C-alpha cells in the first residue's frame, strides 16, 4: 500500500536558551542549518511536500531554508503567530495537508534523525494508525512520557509538567516525532484544548483522542538518542556537532579512509574519497570536495570546493577555497605547507606550490613550480615554469584585472613584478628583481632593474663626537 507523505516541520519556537539573535533552527550543524537537515531528510523519504511552520524570526527562517535538490519535494511555509503550542502549530498547517496522505511531524531543531528510522515509523503507521517514535532514556526529565496500559498498549503522552510522580518514573519518552493519517489528524486537531499546566495546545493530546476513538496507537521504539536529540543551547549544539562528525568520520574509515583522529575531523559539506586517502588531524572540509586515490592531507588544512587528484599531497596549514569557480589540484602535485589556493586555481599534474604562495584564477600546467613567497593572480602558466621566490603578478591596475601569460619553460627569478597584461615568451628568463611591463620574446633573457654600482673601499660615515 502506498500513500503520499507530507512532512510538517515545527520551527516557530523562540529558542531562548541559544541566547542568539539568529533563530535557533538556522544555527548550523555540519555546515547546514538545523532545519535544513530536517528538510533534506524529508526529501530522502520521497515526501510529497514539506511544510515548515515559522513564527519567531519567520522572515529570516524562510529566507534561510531551501527546497531540497531534485525538485520532487515541494517546500512551503506556514506562519504560526502567536505560538500557542505544538498542537496549535500543526493546526496552522492542517489546511494545506491533503486528506489522502500521511502527515509526518518533525521538529526543526532535531537534525539527526535518520531517513530509515522515519521510513520505519511511516511503515508502522501504514496509512491507518497513529505511530509515535519513542525512546528509553535513563534521565527522561523534561520529555513527554509514554503511558501504557496493562496490555502494554499506548494510552497517552503526558508532559513533564502535567505528570504524576508515578508517570515521572516512566523512562519511555516521546521523541516529538509522529506519523499519522492526515484525515484522522484533522479530526483530532479540532478537539485540542489548552487545559493543562502550560496552557498550551499540546499535539501530544492526539494520542488520547485516538485511544478514545478505539484506535491502536503504535510506537516505534529506538535506542539511539542522537537521532531524537534536540538543540536548545550552544552546549547541546556542540555536543550534537561532535556526534554528527564522529558518525561521518566512522563512515569514511569504514570506506578505508585513514583519519589520524576521528575526533579531529570536520566535514561541513560533501566529501568524496578514493582509495588510500590519509587525512591528518584538524582538517576542515567545506562545500564540495573530492580527494583522489592516495591523496594525503596534512594537519590543519581547510579545504573547500576543490578537486584533488590522485597522489597529490597537501602539506599542513594549507587553505584551499574554490568558492564558485572551484580549485583543481592535479595528480601528484605538492601543495604547502602554508599555501593558499583561491577560486579558479587550476593546477596540473606534478605542480609544486610551496610556503606562502597564493594562487588565484590561474592555470598552472604540468610540472610548473612556485615554491616560495609568491603571488600568481589571473595568470596562465605553462609547463615546467619555475616561478621564483617573492615574485608577483601585478594583475590589478586599480580598476581592471589583466592576465599574465608565462609560456612553457620560462624561468622567473626572485622578486620580480610582472605587470599585466604581459606575456613572457616560451623558454625565456627573467632576471631577479625585474619589473616587467612589456612582453618578452621566446628564449630571451629580460632584465629590468637598476644597474649595480660598486664603489671600492667605501668608507661609511662615522658619528661626530661632542
Ligand atoms: C515536545 C513534546 C514532548 C516531547 C518533546 C521532544 C508537546 C506538547 N510535547 O515538548 O512530548 O517529549 O517535544 O523533544 O508536543 N513549536 C512551534 N510552535 C509552538 C511551540 C513549539 O513551532 O507553539 C516548535 C518548537 O520550535 C520546536 C518544537 O515545536 O521545534 C517542539 O517544541 P518544544 O517547545 O521544544 O516542545 P517540548 O516542550 O520540548
Ligand atoms: Mg523541546
Descriptive terms for the model:
binds magnesium ion, UDP N-Acetylglucosamine Acyltransferase, domain 1, Spore Coat Polysaccharide Biosynthesis Protein SpsA, Chain A, 11-stranded parallel β-sheet, single chain, alpha/beta, 13-stranded parallel β-sheet, binds uridine-diphosphate-N-acetylglucosamine, 2 domains
Could you characterize the architecture of this molecule?
With 466 residues, the chain is of the alpha/beta class. The protein has 2 domains: 5-228, Spore Coat Polysaccharide Biosynthesis Protein SpsA, Chain A (Alpha-Beta Complex), CATH 3.90.550; 259-446, 3 Solenoid (UDP N-Acetylglucosamine Acyltransferase, domain 1), CATH 2.160.10. The chain has 8 helices and 38 strands. The strands form 6 sheets. Strands 13, 15, 17, 19, 20, 22, 23, 25, 26, 28, 29, 32 and 35 form a 13-stranded parallel β-sheet that branches. Strands 12-14-16-18-21-24-27-30-33-36-38 form an 11-stranded parallel β-sheet, with helices on one face. A 7-stranded mixed β-sheet has the order 5-4-1-6-10-7-11, sandwiched between helices. A hairpin with a 5-residue loop joins strand 8 (145-148) and strand 9 (154-158). It starts with a strand and ends in a 20-residue tail after the last strand. The mean pLDDT is 97. The structure holds uridine-diphosphate-N-acetylglucosamine and magnesium ion. Uridine-diphosphate-N-acetylglucosamine binds at residues 10-13, 53, 80, 83-86, 88-89, 107-109, 143-144, 157, 159, 173-176, 202-204, 230.
Amino acid at each position: 500500500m502506498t500513500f503520499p507523505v507530507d512532512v510538517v516541520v515545527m520551527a516557530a519556537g523562540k529558542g531562548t536558551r541559544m541566547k542568539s539573535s539568529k533563530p535557533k533552527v538556522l544555527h548550523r550543524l555540519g555546515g547546514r542549518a538545523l532545519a535544513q537537515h530536517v528538510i533534506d531528510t524529508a526529501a530522502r523519504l520521497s515526501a510529497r511536500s514539506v511544510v515548515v511552520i515559522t513564527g519567531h524570526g519567520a522572515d529570516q527562517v524562510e529566507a534561510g531554508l531551501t527546497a531540497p535538490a531534485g525538485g520532487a519535494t515541494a517546500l512551503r511555509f506556514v506562519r504560526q503567530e502567536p505560538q500557542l503550542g505544538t498542537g496549535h502549530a500543526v493546526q496552522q498547517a492542517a489546511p494545506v495537508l491533503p486528506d489522502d496522505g500521511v502527515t509526518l511531524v518533525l521538529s526543526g531543531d532535531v537534525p539527526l534523525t535518520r531517513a530509515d528510522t522515519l521510513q520505519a515509523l511511516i511503515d508502522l503507521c501504514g496509512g491507518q494508525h497513529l505511530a509515535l517514535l519513542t525512546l528509553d532514556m535513563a534521565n527522561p526529565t523534561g520529555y513527554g512520557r509514554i503511558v501504557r496500559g496493562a496490555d502494554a498498549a499506548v494510552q497517552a503522552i503526558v508532559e513533564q509538567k502535567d505528570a504524576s510522580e508515578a508517570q515521572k518514573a516512566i523512562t519511555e519518552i516521546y521523541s516529538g516525532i509522529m506519523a499519522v493519517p492526515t484525515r484522522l489528524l484533522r479530526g483530532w486537531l479540532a478537539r485540542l484544548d489548552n487545559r493543562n499546566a502550560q496552557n498550551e495546545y499540546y499535539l501530544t493530546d492526539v494520542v488520547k483522542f485516538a485511544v478514545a476513538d478505539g484506535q491502536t496507537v503504535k510506537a516505534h521504539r529506538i535506542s539511539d538518542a542522537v537521532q531524537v536529540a534536540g538543540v536548545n543551547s550552544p552546549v547541546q549544539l556542540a555536543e550534537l556537532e561532535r556526534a554528527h562528525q564522529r558518525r561521518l568520520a566512522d563512515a569514511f574509515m569504514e570506506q578505508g579512509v585513514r583519519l589520524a583522529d576521528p575526533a579531529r575531523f570536520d566535514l561541513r559539506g560533501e566529501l568524496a574519497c578514493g582509495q588510500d586517502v590519509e587525512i591528518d588531524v584538524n582538517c576542515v572540509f567545506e562545500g564540495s570536495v573530492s580527494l583522489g586515490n592516495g591523496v594525503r592531507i596534512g594537519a590543519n588544512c581547510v579545504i573547500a570546493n576543490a578537486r584533488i587528484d590522485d597522489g597529490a599531497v597537501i602539506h599542513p596549514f594549507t587553505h584551499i577555497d574554490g568558492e564558485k569557480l572551484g580549485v583543481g589540484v592535479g595528480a601528484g602535485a605538492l601543495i604547502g605547507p602554508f599555501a593558499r589556493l583561491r577560486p579558479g586555481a587550476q593546477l596540473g599534474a606534478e605542480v609544486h606550490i610551496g610556503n606562502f604562495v597564493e594562487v588565484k584564477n590561474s592555470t598552472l600546467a604540468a610540472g610548473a613550480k612556485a615554491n616560495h613567497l609568491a603571488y600568481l593572480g589571473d595568470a596562465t602558466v605553462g609547463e615546467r615554469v619555475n616561478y621564483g621566490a617573492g615574485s608577483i603578478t601585478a594583475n590589478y591596475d586599480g580598476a581592471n584585472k589583466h592576465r599574465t601569460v608565462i609560456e612553457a619553460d620560462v624561468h622567473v627569478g626572485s622578486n620580480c613584478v610582472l605587470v599585466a597584461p604581459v606575456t613572457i615568451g616560451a623558454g625565456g628568463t627573467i632576471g631577479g628583481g625585474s619589473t616587467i611591463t612589456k612582453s618578452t620574446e621566446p628564449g630571451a633573457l629580460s632584465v629590468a632593474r637598476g644597474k649595480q654600482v660598486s664603489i671600492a673601499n667605501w668608507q661609511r660615515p662615522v658619528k661626530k663626537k661632542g
